[in-house]
Amino acid sequence: MSGLLALLDDVAGIAKVAAASVDDIGAAAAKAGSKTAGVLIDDAAVTPKYLHGFEPARELPIIWRIARGSLINKLVFLLPAALLLSTFAPWMIPPLLILGGSYLCFEGAEKIVHVLMPHDDHSGGPDGSHDIEDPLHLEEEKVKGAIKTDFILSAEIMTIALSVIEEGNIWMQGATLALVGIMVTLGVYGAVAVIVKMDDVGLWLSQVGRLGMTRALGRGIVKFMPWLLKTLTVVGTAAMLWVGGSIIVHSVAQMGWHMPEETIHHIAVAYGAGQPFLEWAITAGIDFVLGFIWGLILIPIGVKIVGPIWTAVMPKGA
């Protein structure tokens, strides 16, 4: 009997440790996920464009295909790479974060420049549309393009997540990164699914609603969704520049250059009047400005050098 009680006590102890580990993984995943907000908002704002021109019946299957590709990107390719990086070359994490932050700044600045100085979009017809003679081929192209874009964003997400996970047990790191990857993918593409189908829901309510209030709600949803997408785009762009600038400032501090981070901190404290939110807002605003300036510097490099090289290396339609 005493042996059985001892065994049960050991099992209870193991269960407590396991529960604590699960809590630690969940807390770490939540912390890591919160650091990727800018990338997530932009991802949710960008993805619906890949559904333009398709029948409503194909929207959810396409979203599922992109989400599945995103999970493969994160769990099959990026997760092992992140763990290897953390184990054998942790010194590479800050430079990779700077690279990822620079990409965010470039994308955000380019979007603002495109709004201020619009130019023709040569990716489709005169209005940016595509000739859908072969819907299946177009769907394949769109899905491949979305998954390639997702790979870049997912790499940034996983690198950011890795940078805020405390060093320790590799299994703990792996489980946390896996949880972050799954949570992020479900959150982003679940939100995208809701966004792209809300038009259909609104249209359905406006047509079959029994009450005038219901039909009015449906019409309101239809009118509201374009504004929501525009708002997401604006917020996503601002978040990209803010997060990108913040990542670069913090990463260069990790590499030994503390002056930018310390200067921003002193300015925030001096003008924040002891208000935590105001200090955060000042810091975020400075990070945004720095991110935008750095993005403007990178635009000619990306357009004139990186873009042509990428086009030459990557086969068309790959």
From TrEMBL:
Protein keywords: Membrane, Transmembrane, Transmembrane helix
Pfam families found in the cross-reference section:
DUF808
Residues spanning the membrane: 75-93, 170-196, 227-249, 288-313
Write down the InterPro entries for this protein, in alphabetical order: YedI (IPR008526)
As given in the record, the signal peptide range reads none
Q: Name one GO cellular component term.
A: plasma membrane
Q: What is this protein called?
A: ABC transporter
User: What is the species listed in this Swiss-Prot or TrEMBL entry?
Assistant: Marivita geojedonensis
Species lineage, top-down?
Bacteria, Pseudomonadati, Pseudomonadota, Alphaproteobacteria, Rhodobacterales
